[in-house]
């Protein structure tokens, strides 16, 4: 077994500390490198192979220099794209072959999770030198080394990380490491370049970190319009439910302590990894000597993994607080310490220790990872376990890719014993859990995949109609009256329907308002899955092609058909908030079926309907129904007879 370093989680705290300590010795030895015996010869007779499928200056040259300084030798395909990869060789085969030429492999690749696939096939230790936008653990070692030397400690320091946090792998590894050392972390993403969900989830799960919003004033010097979040170890705090909204901004800011930054870590926009053009024209954070003139930044050091592309002005280069060139220089001693450790530890380690350990509850059958840049979508992976379950206490379930860490929503679940499948919805969580325990759970990509595997759909339980067309009409009249009673000025009102049924109900409410008051109220359609920064107008309305409703400074009423756990409502609130800061936000639902998991209370409810958890409530509307009829029905997801 070999010792791989694929993610920062593969190194224990003590190992990180010992690498940082050893790197200091290496740095001292490098200063005296002219003296005989100054440098350790711990890699004498060993070979490192560097496989770089993406450009690199610092990482590759410092790895190679480190190996030579340790008395070892380096082989390298200067451009992997011109190697066998261009003839269609898999990364798995390349890793297998090259590991018979070398004692340690260093890999950089453009696909997320590539390092793990290569490590599964390598017979010697493999070090990840950056895999897509996933992780870059050795950069983090350099960052920690530089930070520790500058600040004396990592524990409890406050570090702001700014820029492209969505695709910046150095920021991903760094935030995970800082959380382990209990640093306070301020995140300042450029708009639309926030940390991915999987990462925030990890720091929350592993280290109890929860985001809270920082005082914008503390960071005002950094950039205009920043949306800074402060990651702190969690205190029981129900407000943290709204992590991606600012509903509770005032309260949180009132509680927040002023921030003194120990370090500001800037990153560049990862243009080559962009999958879309949504961030075209985004104002990117920039720091210059003005920023650093702010008295609160007196002791703030400035870091950057480089290359910089305008985020840090050159006029800071001579400032003693600018550490980015020192960070780059630390690459040699830090990588010497790491390579020495990895070469010394050839025995007794599981593949990639912490981050690849087979996890209980990992699924065998799974859909494709939802991350388009994940290696598992490009190369066949042999490992049976590709995902682990992530369950939130509140009952949502996701699959987490063991290669790239991205979350994939569960869409279709099946039962291996009954050979039946069903579309997954949150209230089905009980089934998912039970089938998992019985080892009967199968997760499919799509209905098509389930049917190809010869699974049949579950028969639903008998249907019971619980609201007639007249009752729905009456409930909508009452909802409309109640909304009007609470809205003195109709011109400030915006109705936003949650796609799909909620949008049709919202339209009916708007029509009722027009009939009662002769006023046209703006109507928007919100797609909680879509998650943009605007809410489009109702598509059927004349002359609104491509228009958006105005949320800022309006009273917003969100309309949905059924409220259950509250998660959709929470997501809808978040979408509204992203589109602008409303004067107020209210929630109107036709049916409240209970089983709330979030502390949310709709302002207006057409009908309260106590249900059992396994029951499904469906609002069938004439606009969407094959029989063009309105009614609300209730039935079991899975016919109780079939389930037994
Ligand atoms: N050099 C770092 C990396 O390879 C940072 C960057 O390219 O922005 O990820």
Word description of this protein:
The model is unreliable at 235-247 and 347-364 (pLDDT under 50). The chain has 644 residues and is α/β, with parallel strands linked by helices. The strands form 6 sheets. It has a 6-stranded mixed sheet with strand order 7-8-6-5-9-10. The protein has a 5-stranded parallel sheet with strand order 20-19-21-22-23, with helices on both faces. The protein has a 4-stranded parallel sheet with strand order 2-1-3-4, with helices on both faces. The chain has 17 helices and 25 strands. The protein has 4 domains: 8-135 and 331-347, Rossmann fold, CATH 3.40.50; 138-328, Aspartate/ornithine carbamoyltransferase (Rossmann fold); 362-457, no CATH class; 464-643, Rossmann fold. It binds aspartic acid.
Write the layout of secondary structure elements.
Elements: H1 13-31, E1 47-52, H2 58-69, E2 73-77, H3 91-98, E3 104-109, H4 114-121, E4 126-131, H5 137-151, E5 158-163, H6 169-180, E6 184-189, H7 197-207, E7 209-213, E8 229-233, H8 249-255, E9 263-266, E10 301-303, H9 324-329, H10 331-344, H11 353-356, E11 387-391, E12 397-401, E13 407-409, E14 412-415, E15 420-423, H12 429-437, E16 441-444, H13 447-452, E17 456-457, E18 464-467, H14 469-485, E19 493-498, H15 501-517, E20 522-526, E21 555-563, H16 567-579, E22 584-592, E23 604-608, E24 615-620, E25 631-636, H17 640-643
Parallel strand pairs: 1-2, 1-3, 3-4, 5-6, 5-9, 9-10, 15-17, 19-20, 19-21, 21-22, 22-23
Antiparallel strand pairs: 6-8, 7-8, 11-12, 12-13, 14-15, 14-16, 18-25, 24-25
Bound molecules: aspartic acid.
Aspartic acid (ASP) binds at residues 130, 136, 139, 169-170, 267-268, 305.
């Amino acid at each position: 077994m070999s010792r791989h370093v694929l993610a920062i989680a593969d190194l224990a705290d003590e190992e990180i500390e010992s690498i940082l300590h050893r790197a200091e010795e290496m740095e001292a030895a490098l200063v005296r490198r002219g003296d005989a015996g100054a440098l350790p010869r711990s890699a004498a007779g060993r070979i490192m192979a560097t496989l770089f499928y993406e450009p690199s200056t610092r990482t590759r040259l410092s790895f190679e220099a480190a190996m030579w300084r340790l008395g070892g030798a380096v082989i390298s395909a200067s451009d992997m794209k011109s190697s066998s990869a261009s003839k269609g060789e898999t990364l798995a085969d390349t890793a297998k072959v090259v590991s018979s030429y070398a004692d340690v492999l260093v890999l950089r690749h453009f696909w997320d999770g590539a390092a793990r696939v290569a490590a599964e096939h390598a017979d010697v230790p493999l070090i990840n030198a950056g895999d897509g936008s996933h992780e870059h653990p050795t950069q983090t070692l350099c960052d920690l080394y530089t930070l520790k030397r500058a600040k004396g400690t990592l524990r409890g320091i406050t570090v702001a990380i700014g820029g492209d946090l969505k695709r910046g792998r150095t920021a991903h590894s760094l935030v995970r490491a800082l959380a382990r050392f209990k640093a306070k972390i301020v995140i300042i993403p450029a708009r639309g370049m926030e940390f991915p969900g999987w990462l925030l989830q990890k720091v929350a799960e592993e280290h109890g970190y929860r985001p809270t919003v920082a005082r914008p004033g503390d960071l005002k010097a950094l950039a205009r319009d920043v949306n800074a979040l402060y990651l702190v170890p969690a205190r029981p705090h129900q407000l943290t439910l709204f992590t991606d909204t600012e509903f509770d901004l005032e309260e949180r800011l009132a509680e927040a302590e002023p921030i003194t930054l120990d370090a500001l870590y800037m990153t560049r926009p990862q243009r080559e990894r962009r999958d879309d053009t949504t961030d075209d024209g985004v104002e990117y954070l920039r720091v210059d000597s003005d920023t650093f003139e702010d008295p609160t930044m007196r002791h703030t050091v400035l870091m950057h993994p480089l290359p910089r592309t305008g985020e840090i002005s050159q006029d800071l280069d001579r400032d003693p607080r600018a550490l980015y060139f020192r960070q780059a220089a630390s690459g040699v001693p830090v990588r010497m310490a790491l390579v020495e450790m990895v070469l010394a530890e050839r025995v007794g380690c599981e593949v990639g220790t912490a981050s690849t350990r087979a996890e209980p509850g990992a699924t065998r059958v799974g859909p494709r990872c939802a991350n388009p840049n994940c290696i598992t979508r490009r190369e066949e992976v042999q490992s049976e376990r590709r995902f682990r379950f992530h369950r939130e206490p509140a009952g949502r379930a996701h699959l987490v890719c063991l290669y790239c860490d991205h979350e994939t929503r569960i869409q279709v679940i099946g039962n291996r014993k009954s050979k039946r499948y069903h579309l997954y919805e949150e209230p089905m969580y009980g089934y998912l859990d039970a089938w998992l325990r019985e080892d009967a759970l199968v997760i499919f990509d799509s209905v098509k995949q389930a049917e190809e595997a010869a699974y049949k759909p579950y028969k639903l339980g008998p249907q019971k109609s619980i609201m007639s067309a007249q009752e729905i009409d009456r409930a909508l009249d009452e909802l409309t009256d109640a909304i009007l009673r609470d809205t003195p000025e109709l011109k400030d009102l915006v109705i936003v329907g949650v796609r799909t049924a909620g949008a049709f109900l919202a339209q009916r409410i708007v029509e009722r308002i027009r009939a009662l008051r002769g006023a046209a109220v703006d109507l928007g359609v919100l797609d909680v899955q879509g998650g943009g920064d605007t809410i489009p107008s109702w598509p059927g309305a004349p002359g609104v092609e491509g228009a958006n409703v105005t949320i800022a400074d309006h009273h917003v009423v969100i309309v949905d058909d059924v409220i259950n756990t509250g998660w959709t409502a929470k997501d809808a609130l978040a979408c509204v908030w992203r589109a602008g800061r409303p004067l107020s936000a209210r929630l109107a639902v036709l049916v409240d079926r209970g089983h709330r998991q979030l502390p949310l209370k709709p302002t207006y409810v057409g009908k309260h309907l106590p249900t059992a958890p396994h029951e499904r409530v469906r609002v069938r509307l004439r606009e969407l129904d094959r029989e063009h009829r309105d009614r609300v029905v209730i039935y079991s997801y899975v016919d109780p007879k079939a389930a037994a």
